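User: Okay, second chain of the day. Same drill as before: sequence in, structure tokens out.
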Amino acid sequence: MKILLAIFISITFMLPLSAQTIEAEKTYSLSKDAKKGYLGSFKYDEATREYTLIFIHQKNSKTIYVTYKYDYDFNLINENSETLNDDDATVKYDFVNYNKDTWPNPTVVRIAQGLDLTLRQGKIYRHWERAYVEYFGKMTLLIPAHYEYEFNETQKVKPRLKVDELSDMPKFIQKSASRIQLINYATDEPSMEIAKNYGLKASHWGENKKTYAEASGDLLVFGAQSWMLKNFTTAQYLAIKYDAKTLKEKHQSIIKFDKYYGVVFSKALSDGSIAAVLAPMATGKNKPINVRDYYYLRINKDADVQEKIAFKSPSSKWEINDFAETETGDVIVYGAAFKKKNDKAFNKLQNPKFDNFQIMRISKGKIEYVTSTSFDEFKSKQRMPKGMKKINSYEGKNFVVGNLVSAANGDIFISGQAKNEDKYENIGLFHFDNQGKLKAQYGYKIINKGTKINPHVEFNNTDKKTLSWLIYESDGQTETKNLLYPRIATIDIESATVSEFKQMYNKKNKFYIDNDKPIIFIENRNKAIFFGADKKDENIWFSRVKLGK
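Assistant: Same drill. Structure tokens below.
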């Protein structure tokens, strides 16, 4: 059973979990064909309370499907093996998507690499690839059968936009100012299983489209134009929607500010909009009146200005790590900041020693709060799981800030991991209340430090009072997989306390989670199934865990 290309790190951005009681655990040996193949499907039937696992082994021109059925407590019900061609497998299994339908070679728009906006129009071609092996460094990866999609460029266009207020200026100034500097972009083009030769592909709008027939392929661009006159720098920002089939503008918005502002962070959001935070900059004779007068900007997917909100940043230097979206549609902006020299503009403070952490929440077009938490307060509120030694408190450096999770009561949790040169070390989890004030800093001492980040996942439990904290420890890797095993704890949101971590894996025989399908949630997410195999992929392991307190 070989590792799939999906590679495990993706679950760092997706999973949600809770803890604590192990209800059932079993191991089984695999058949010869299953051992040589890969796991194509793992499903749980709520009605029959049965698990179905299907392993796929491609042997020359044949494809063998080995099916195992287990009851609720992982007792084997039956095992079946059959050989199918791709047509028959597509009819029988929903995870095989081969078909002989005519592919329309849809037209899409891509972005060429470079600072100036360059549009690449082209068509998407595809062909069916049977399973094959690829080598990534020391890893041997089995790539499942899939459609391979390829972008073929048909034309390249570098748009220009005349700046009307410079019409009396020399032509070289007008020409320079007409360039559009790319900041961010988004499209509704579907994700592709495996993609080659596609250049820069944009983020997706909203839910991922399943087919090209459902998508327009249009492109939303957020860019800027700037010019200097008499040592004063001027900038204006652009939002442009381009038609995929004609490359013509569907809509355009120009955004101006009374002073020179620069974008310090931007991101394409799930609804197809693009959000950005801008700070006043000091260049030449440009001297901001107040270096903490920031703006939050949001462009909707039709290239209209959805939100343009002025706010006062507690720090003139705010190194934003990310924008996160909550289930209620709020946007949360967060990252380390520096306020010791609040008389200097953002771009005049290079490599500062950060002294606080800022959070901003935007809800329904308004700033709900902007808070600043000192590192001394982080240290005073550090809390460790039972039996675990204290770790270094967060100080804004040598730390990779990660995901954000919002609880039902509005509290937020931000995770991250310390990094010392090329080694990833201990994990931190910041807990803020619904007004952005720090409640606790939870710490986790890594057992095995390594050169790869430890996947860690935080998510709400169904009781809406607790949050699960799942961390994957590493025992290294083999040629075919990362050797990861899960440890899990529960956080009480109201009291801001963390339980002891419980280890989920068979210690005696050292079973590790499947890198592609490590966990399945059942019974309305009140329980979870951990699944994996031993080091040689000869035996599989199941564990059912009751989540929450």
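Confidence is low (pLDDT under 50) at residues 3-19, 193-209.

User: Thanks, on to the next one.
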